[in-house]
Amino acid sequence: MAGYRDLLRTPGVGRIIAAQLTARFPSGMTSLAILLHVEHITGQYAAAGLVLAAASIGQAAAGPVTSRWMGSWGMRRVLTLTMLVCAAALACMAFLVMPLGAYMVLGLLAGLSTPPVQAAVRTIYPKMVNSRQLTPLFSLDASLQEIIWILAPVVVTFVSTQISTVVGLALIVVILLGGGTWFILSPELGRVRIPRSRRRLGRVLARPPVLLATVTGLLLIGACAAVEAGVVATFSDGGVEAGLVLAVFSLGSLGGGLVSGTIRIGRWAMARRMAIVFVGLAVTTVSLDVWWIGGSLIVAGIGVAPAFAVISAMTTASVKFSDTAEAFGWVNTGQLIGAAAGSAVAGFLIDGYGPGGAYWTAVAFAAAGVAVSVLFVRGFPDLRFRDPSPLPDTEPVHTITS
Question: pTM here?
Fold first, then answer.
């Protein structure tokens, strides 16, 4: 913990972490709020899953583009525009009663305009600390983001079930605008400028570590999204139990992330951490008892934040600084495709076979993540003895010879 204290004493680190966590807090609330709101209106989890899938597809399509825009237009302009459009779409979803197709269109728009806060902050990090502190910073970030998943599900579930699903969505709009404004006005955004990338859009995926980070993130988030849908379906009649169980899942992730911050990242790090997630999720299929699911999700959670730390570190270390934001945009796209797939598949299986189908969906995603990490282990960089900072931006220098 002493290393984390030293890290937080670095000028600006504590402030930017707090600001970006607040700006990203709605990400832990939106999917649950939409799920509860659309299911309340239509009476079908499959319909809610389709709206969630539309929102995730929108985010997936826009992620690399809006992240790349930050190098052309500046971080503050892109973040402000996307924040305002996203807030408007969620407000319309909350206050207007519409057919399912209209909800899907608004979900798509909200996804397309989701502010690229994660890509922005993880591009800024390498410019705020030295190379020795970068891997612990990614672990700390991955751990502290679990505060979002601990508090946000409890808050939005309580508000949506005990007050109104409309109020739940309205609360998200307020936090989105307030937290986004704080992050946008942070001094660090003015001090760091992302260079304009000289590569074509999508070229960063030619680097195996970026592609593997995208695929493993897709599978990991797909498992988590399926678990979220399963927990909500299992405890939908019990008040706050769903939020509390998801909070326990995040507590396991928080603890695992903090412990793993001092462990160097080798080629097998992702396989080991995904295996922990798989084992914990496999145990959830035994019983739908609240204590059993809560205990098994603690085990699964221990591997989640450490796996995200590996994804962040390997992405940063594999691209030039000018390509970092786009690379994280693609990684985020992979995760959102996973969220769409996990939510949609779990939603249909819940309607067809009950909540247990969602947990089996999560197990399948996690098993695929382990398989990818093992089969393609040579594509993962060994960061135990190398600088995890982005590669320098260089270009040919013309010389005159006589």
Answer: 0.78
